[in-house]
Predict the structure.
Amino acid sequence: MQNVKGTYDYFGKEQRLRKKVQTLLEEQFALYDYESMDTTLLNELELLTSKYAGGDEILKEMYQLSDQGERRLGLRYDLTIPFAKVIALNPGIELPFKRYEIGKVFRDGPVKRGRLREFLQCDADVVGISGPEAEAELMQLADEVFRKLEIPVVMKWNNRRFLGEILEALGVPAADSLSVMLTLDKLQKVGVAGVKSELTAKGLNSDTTAAILELIGLENPGFEQLCSKYNLTGQPGAVEVLALQTLISKIGLQEICQFDPFLSRGLSFYTGTVYEIFDASGTFTSSLGGGGRYDAIIGKLVEREDMAYPTVGLSFGMESIMALLGERKVEENDASVMIVPIGDDTLAQALMTAAQLRKEGIRTSIETGKRKLKKVLASASTKGIRYVVMIGENEASEGIVRLKDMREQCEYAVVPDEAIYLITK
């Protein structure tokens, strides 16, 4: 008996850390006025394989199945397409609409550190804002989250429309533009030689290939340099980049937001701004999150491409974040309490005292085993439990408890109400 490769069970310290991160994310989503959403795990295969969805790279990794009615279904591989489906099926939703969702997705891909087959995604999306304020706010959200997690990050960003304008200037046919973008996106992974090999395999003419290689040979090319070199000033993509770049500077995010003209991300549905978040130290190479603008999906799903559904999203990579946090110590709740009944007739008093504590919102457990007190106290200390409440037969008869502060190593004989005061003050 073993877990399927790329899937894990979580409990104990690791699960407590996961829940702490999830709670932090939910609190930040709520502060930014995003509403909670829960979409379906199972979806019609036709939706997930739509040409407007994730593209060939993702479809290779999708889990496909059929039900007893021989309907063709698939497990969701992200939270974006199910979100687009919800908007398409509910035309009465008032726009702009902001939502967040934390849920599992499934991909039958290669397994490595920070990349699993069953994993949690944490997404925020807004539909109905054409930008750039929507992108800027999501960048603020990401900055806030990672500062609270104490993870220094760099947020690389680009604009696919602008990259397409560069490729057009280099002579790349429109039909090959997306494919070339996805190759350039692999530059850090495969290097110049790998990019050249892929470009050659695409059948591009030699002049175009040479022009692309000249482009990637530039040393840290900036937006202004590229606009000037390829005469792109005033083009739609260039205008979008300039607007977001200006906003990023005005809100003080220019230190962590780095323009990367080769970034396009793997999904085919992005139409404008894209961004990806990385560990600033460079020691952890997997992406910690990413997202972008996908203005076309919803209109195409409802077969109303004339209707505007400008949409932009951000996804936090929970598994990558957890892998990076690694062995970081989990701060336990200072107010957690363990109640230890001592003797034969003290269990009822222990249960009533526990009920009083829980009524006040204090996390409380009861030691119901027959372990010696020394071992119980050692166990409480190991678990990071701050307070132990001991109730012996004398205490039970007098209506008091013995409260032990494990951190300060002091002990009080008090009534339950006073114990609650000492614990919560």
Remarks:
- The radius of gyration is 27 Å.
- The CA atoms of residues 163 and 233 lie 13 Å apart.
- The first strand starts at residue 35 and ends at 36.
